[in-house]
Automatic annotation (TrEMBL), chain A:
Coiled coil: none annotated. Residues 62-250 form the ABC transmembrane type-1 domain. The chain crosses the membrane at residues 66-88, 100-120, 126-146, 178-199, 231-250. PANTHER family: INNER MEMBRANE ABC TRANSPORTER PERMEASE PROTEIN YDCV (PTHR43357:SF4). This is ABC transporter permease. Belongs to the binding-protein-dependent transport system permease family. Keywords: Cell inner membrane, Cell membrane, Membrane, Transmembrane, Transmembrane helix, Transport. It is found in: Cell inner membrane; Cell membrane. The keyword Nucleotidyltransferase does not apply. One of its GO terms (biological process) is transmembrane transport. The keyword Transmembrane helix applies.
Length: 265, 388
């Protein structure tokens, strides 16, 4: 292994520490006893956590965000799996075109997508409903789902499914018995990663909330415009912990290598 | 009366697994990969589809399996038309080239999978799985993971997994090609053994002529999407009908020639000299004066004699010994005859007067053994890496 020069080592450490710094500040501020977001905290107290857990608005937003994330990840993973399976087995030639379409949400500014989404949802008459938010989240997360699922499926020998068919399995049965278990880690990666993205999504979601429904990150954003209460720091810390746990889980069950491998070619 | 009836019923059951391929063609766009294949495979036969890569043998196997449908013609199994019948409904098993074992299943789970799909009762399933694991020589290894097995063992699992469902036809797509020589030989013998025990029809694809001749009852030689010849291995070796088949099966001496007179005997002019052959030597074409042709002789049909020798009724050519190689009981002599290199093979102890390398000699052969073919067309020659 090559040794680093002291200068680049120091720069590297500073850089790595700087990345999560805002999180440490929010974390510290959440234990502040005073009525303002402050760092370092002047006194220590759990009052903001008590408020976060007792105020029904926060509980509802956390609940909404969690179930929207769950539905989004399951639906988008199913779509990606079927799309990847279909192209690999029946239409390998359209893969390049399909990937272009699937990755296109990465190329557009999220604010533009928000505007487009609100126009579309208004046409469909579903602005302010969970359906609109889930639909938008599917579009935003599909690139992050298609890649790991496609990488996993591509590495499966296509003769496995034929072998199962020769033994009498229907295509669906062969998918369930053979292909799904082999692609397990790719599918779990897709589920968890799209769940995390959906849980944290603000920009596009902001355009689609209504009086009946809001998600946790949007609720935080809306709240801070009226009131910079330290309860926000407590909520943010909770949300960071949820995301962090999901990433630890992801690393444990599937590893993060699916994002390093290229899905093309 | 009842006995006769029962007898005939059981006879009928014994002969399942026949395949009739009638005028089958398969095209992809403008490319025809199989053209007008006709083949009747009797039940219980060990048949090999043999040919160079790209000859259409794997395509034919996939048509029988139902992964693809013929563009023209029809395939029937036991008299039943298979067009439109999905793979799942065909009485076949298959061993894939890369085996396609289920990596997340154990050996026993792989073998049991087809039985599970058929909802076989647990006790019967256990018993059949054990029986077939034993049959392929893997007794006691049912709990192993696939990744723990050697190449040869994986091969045996693939075989057990297909045979446990007792298909009347087993398709094998070059299943031994990834193994080393020794293991390959062992498994060829095991395959032949199992096939004879079960009387299942085996359709085996290979590009290895030695493998094909060793294990098959019937060999189908294919090239460029056409069936060249069908027959028992020894018949194909002894009487090949085309130059392609002669070259593909066994070793061959070829003498480029020109026909100078056609009858009653064929007069032939070659760089090694002029001689006559019986009219029956010409195969697959009617030679006319002036035609280019190739004379084919097996190495064991040549005799190497001292320069003074002359044997009545034999064709004698002047030659020179290039080198000799004694391989146990056999001796291979490399010869230069005119401008043509030839090989003669004889029993070492029959070689009474071994001639040293470099010495002049006579090569003799029985003119009735020689075969005369039209030269290969360009596309056929490319299968051997030559240009006609």
């Amino acid at each position: 292994m090559r040794t680093m020069s002291p200068l680049s080592r120091t720069l590297g450490i500073v850089f790595l520490l700087a990345l999560p710094l805002p999180i440490f500040i929010v974390f510290g501020a959440s234990f502040n006893g005073s009525a303002y977001i402050q760092f370092p905290p002047e006194s220590y107290s759990l009052r903001w956590y008590i408020e976060a857990f007792t105020d029904p608005r926060w509980a509802r937003a956390v609940g909404t965000s969690l179930w929207i994330a769950a539905v989004t990840s399951v639906v988008v993973t199913t779509i990606s799996f079927l799309a990847a399976y279909f192209t690999l087995r029946y239409a390998p030639k359209i893969n390049t075109l399909l990937e272009l379409a699937i990755f296109s949400p990465l190329f557009f500014p999220h604010a533009c997508m928000g505007v487009a989404a609100v126009a579309l949802m208004a046409k469909l008459g579903i602005v302010g409903t969970p359906g609109a938010i889930i639909l938008a989240h599917i579009i935003v997360t599909v690139p992050f789902s298609y890649r790991p699922v496609h990488v996993a499926l591509r590495s499966v020998d296509p003769d496995l499914i034929r072998a199962a068919e020769v033994m009498g399995a229907s295509e669906l049965r062969a998918l369930k018995d053979i292909i799904l278990p082999i692609c397990r880690s790719g599918i779990l990666t897709s589920l968890l990663f799209t769940g995390i993205i959906s849980f944290d999504e603000v920009t596009v979601t902001m355009f689609l909330i209504g009086p009946e429904i809001t998600t946790l990150p949007v609720q935080i954003f809306t709240f801070i415009q009226d009131d910079a209460s330290p309860v926000l720091a407590a909520i943010s810390t909770i949300s960071v912990i949820i995301t962090f746990l999901a990433i630890v889980l992801l690393e444990r069950v599937a590893g993060l290598t699916f994002f390093v491998q290229r899905s093309g070619s | 009366m009842t006995t006769t009836l029962n007898q005939s019923v059981s006879d009928v059951q014994n002969v399942t697994g026949s395949i009739d391929i009638a005028s089958v063609s398969k095209s992809y766009g403008d490319t025809e990969v199989l053209s007008n294949v006709n083949l009747n495979i009797p039940a219980g036969n060990f048949l090999t589809l043999l040919g160079p890569s790209g000859c259409g043998k794997t395509t034919l196997l996939r048509l029988i399996a139902g992964f693809i449908e013929p563009s023209k013609g029809k395939i029937a199994i036991d008299g039943r038309d298979m067009n439109g019948v999905p793979t799942q409904k065909r009485p076949i098993g298959m061993v894939f080239q890369n085996l396609a074992l289920f990596p997340h299943f154990s050996v026993a789970e792989n073998v049991a999978y087809g039985l599970k799909l058929r909802k076989t009762p647990a006790a019967e399933m256990q018993q059949r799985v054990d029986r077939f694991i034993d049959l392929v020589g893997l007794s006691g290894m049912g709990d192993r993971r696939i990744a723990q097995l050697s190449g040869g063992q994986k091969q045996r699992v693939a075989l057990a997994r297909s045979l446990v469902l007792e298909p009347s036809i087993l398709l094998l797509d070059e299943p031994l090609s990834a193994l080393d020589m020794q293991l390959r030989k062992q498994l060829q013998i095991a395959l032949k053994d199992i096939q004879q025990k079960l009387k299942t029809t085996f359709v085996f694809v290979t590009h290895d002529q030695e493998e094909a001749t060793m294990i098959s009852d019937t060999v189908v030689v294919m090239s460029n999407g056409h069936v060249q010849q069908v027959g028992a291995p020894q018949d194909i070796y002894a009487s090949p009908e085309t130059l392609f088949v002669s070259k593909f099966i066994g070793e061959l001496n070829e003498i480029p020639a020109r026909v100078t007179d056609t009858g009653p005997h064929l007069s032939i002019d070659t760089a090694a000299g002029q001689f006559t052959l019986p009219a029956s030597a010409a195969r697959g074409f009617a030679p006319r004066t002036g035609d280019a042709a190739v004379i084919c002789l097996r190495p064991e049909q040549l005799k190497v004699l001292p320069t003074g020798a002359n044997v009545a009724g034999q064709t004698m050519l002047d030659a020179r010994v290039v080198s000799r190689l004694v391989i146990g009981p056999l001796t291979r002599v490399s010869l230069r005859v005119g401008e043509t290199d030839m090989i003669a093979v004889m029993m070492t102890d029959a070689d009474t007067a071994p001639l040293p390398s470099g010495s002049a000699c006579k090569v003799s052969f029985n003119p009735d053994h020689a075969r005369l073919f039209a030269p290969l067309s360009d596309d056929m020659a490319s299968a051997f890496g030559e240009h006609a």
